[in-house]
Amino acid sequence: MDTVESGGLAVCTNYRESSRSGTGAARAIAARVFGAWSLGKLGHVGRALRLFHPGAGPGRAGPGRGLRRSCRFRVPPPQSLTMATSCTRLTGDLCSQVLDSVDALLFDCDGVLWKGDSMIPGAAALVNRLQERGKLVFFLTNNSTKSREMYVEKLRRLGFQAHCEQVFGSAPCAALYLRQEAKLSGSVYLIGGAALRGELQAQNIACSDSGPGPGLVQAMATEPLDPTVAAVLIGFDEHFTYTKLCRASRYLQDPACIFLATNTDTLLPLEGGGIPGTGCLVKAVEAASKRTAYVIGKPNDYMFKCLMKENGIDPSRTVMVGDRLDTDILMGTSCGLRTILALTGVSTLEEVRAHQESNSPERHKLVPTYYVNSVADLFPGLE
Ligand SMILES: [Mg+2]
């Protein structure tokens, strides 16, 4: 099956209005925008739609206030969307046309370019050819276990041409958020690994002692807390303990303490299977603290905002390539990008079809514009 048909198009002009499930005004311009898209003239419409939204704050320096202060770029609000009317397989002339119409391609990594330590066959050749053809290539990953340098090392080891400025991971972007947007003045209580700690240090952000291993429960309730801690940051932590959960929740009893998470993926895909991901740890701390973390990774648009700030790409000439509907595709849709689902990872065409057939506008946001069996299928479009 080459095309997964969809019931319709929804383009919203206003975040708050769209939250009331598609206003007449939004629907009225939908056809116009779709027409512009069909004619390849979406750029001006995309710019018109690129409205700014404040977002929800994680603590005393929430993303709304911070971003309003310092960001020069603007991306569409989460529900200002250009959603796919069909999920079409990219082959032949259509593949060539799509690649001709984009200047930049954003690639998720796990499940798209590699699985564990094994490259998806043909992925490096594709990425390298794209760059030889003058396309801008970026790597967007929710995985917080690696720094930018570690990602570049892995990319090069697997044969990809890459440098640090092309990598936007949840670890470096979390550190950037705390330094540039939240203007953090204290230290961070970190539940996370060495790479995340290193990214914080690169931004001159101190980490409080994460605490000893299991101890007396009563002592956990009364032990003195570090008065310098102004934020709690959750990333993947293979040494997550009850002690860390207890300390994090006690810091978060202060409503001014910023609560940040690198990502909410509940599965960390590894070669041969998967294990519980960062999202499971975030859920535990959220339950214990009765607070909700501000999430840096996809489907939130913060990593894309970082990319826009550094590179100034045109969303109407950018495509997001990912293997997960609820992170990669949703972020791409929310940011006004066309999206390509690669069927080499988590999500399937059956899930796409179920989202399309749903009556829920929220689920329609998860429908990609195109799909390929593998990113290697894009290669003939460059010939
Ligand atoms: Mg992935």
How do you describe this structure in short?
With 383 residues, this protein is α/β, with parallel strands linked by helices.
Notes on the protein architecture:
Strand 6, helix 7 and strand 7 form a beta-alpha-beta unit. The chain has 383 residues and is α/β, with parallel strands linked by helices. It is 38% helix and 16% strand. The protein has 2 domains: 3-142 and 299-382, HAD superfamily/HAD-like (Rossmann fold); 171-295, HAD superfamily/HAD-like (Rossmann fold, 3-Layer(aba) Sandwich). The two termini are 24 Å apart. Helix 8 runs parallel beside helix 9 (194-202) and helix 11 crosses helix 12 (278-289). The model is unreliable at 5-82 (pLDDT under 50). Strands 1-2-16-15-14-3-6-7 form an 8-stranded mixed sheet, with helices on both faces. A 4-stranded parallel sheet has the order 8-9-10-13. It is elongated and about 65 Å long. It binds magnesium ion (MG). The site of magnesium ion has 8 residues, from loops.
* Major sheet characteristics: 8 strands, mixed
Mean pLDDT: 82
- What's the domain count? 2
CATH superfamily grouping of the largest domain: HAD superfamily/HAD-like
CATH class of the largest domain: Alpha Beta
Q: In total, how many beta strands? A: 16
Distance between the termini: 24 Å
The proportion of residues forming helix, as a percent range, comes to 25-40%
- From the spread of the alpha carbons, the general shape counts as elongated
Q: Radius of gyration, Cα only, in angstroms? A: 21 Å
Please report the number of helical segments: 16
State the secondary-structure class. Answer: alpha/beta
Q: How would you write the strand order of the largest sheet? A: 1-2-16-15-14-3-6-7
Q: Which small-molecule species are bound to the chains here?
A: magnesium ion
Strand content: 15-25%
* Unreliable spans: 5-82
CATH architecture of the largest domain: 3-Layer(aba) Sandwich
Look up the CATH topology of the largest domain.
Rossmann fold
